[in-house]
Amino acid sequence: MNLGELSTDFLLPLLEATRQNDRNPEQVLAQYGFQEEQLQHPGQWLSIARFMRIGEALIDLTDNPGLGLEAGRLGGLTGAGLAGMAAITAPTLGDALETLTRFEPLYARNIRGSSQWHRDALQSHLCFYSIAPYNEYNRFVVDSILAGWVQLCEQLTGRSDLVEAMTIEFEAPHYVSHYTRELSCRIEFGQPQNAVILKEGAEQTRLLFASLPDHRRMVSLCQTQLESISHPLTISHKTARAIAACLPKPCTLEIIAEALKTPHWTLRRKLQEENTTFKEILEQTRKELAGSYLANTATAVSEVAYLTGFSSTEAFQRAFKRWTGLPPGEYRRQNQPVNN
């Protein structure tokens, strides 16, 4: 099971931030199979795992744990492609953010979830899904996304006073001073979700390049492109995707049926019609995710156990050996490519 992928354009702000730290990123790129001129060609993707490894290497190169924040400040719309063009021409900031999240699969996909735009009577906020557990080398992803969204609001409107706060799931890290240096909004750590919260009424702010006819044309192009990459899924595939997005939280038939907006007895019956059961799909999904984490990331075995919903590392190790015939560490040694 693929953990996810994103446009190679998302590397560009990281590379520029590295240069602004007086370091040359070319050797790191080469180490992971890229030449910088390759990144100028549109339509290229890289795996989430490789993106995180490149980010980890650049943080080590610069000795700067706040590199993600600096990349976010330099990023904004970078990477959003056609969806970004549709956002630029939207009538209001809220319309732009809704457009970016609706068409996110055109530039980024992750098994853990998708970004969400929420607007209600009390507040409007843009949420980035959880990638817990957090460590030294995946916090930069949250940093770059949220800081990029703050920069995006300013780029689209020409105003720097629209963001109320940024909330972050992980506790305040050792480089907390970088946040106050790079961002002017309130920062709250240890919160239930990763989000950028707008000030009251900010979503109604008109954009600098608003053009409703152009926006509608761009949205139509985005919709056509989205339909071209979307394929009808069996109920088994839908169930597996819902389980992957739900983990590491508890995954029961009832919980997944609710996520799929269907009664649990109907889900059970439809799975039986495809000659499978919920338990079999849960087991297979955990197995595939565990194999992907071990083969494609440096995630510790204990964290892979957590991410796949096991209550202990020992229980995960027993299950993984039953699945593959190998302990997790040996499976990683045999299957992890160099410089993935």
TrEMBL record:
Keywords: DNA-binding, Transcription, Transcription regulation
Top-rank taxon: Bacteria
Ranges for domain HTH araC/xylS-type: 237-334
Keyword Transcription regulation included in the entry's annotation: yes
UniProt-listed Pfam families: Arabinose_bd (PF12625), HTH_18 (PF12833)
UniProt GO cellular component terms: cytosol
GO molecular function, one term: transcription cis-regulatory region binding
PANTHER family in the record: HTH-TYPE TRANSCRIPTIONAL REGULATOR GADX, HTH-TYPE TRANSCRIPTIONAL REGULATOR VQSM
Protein's UniProt name: HTH-type transcriptional regulator VirS
Species whose genome carries this gene: Parendozoicomonas haliclonae
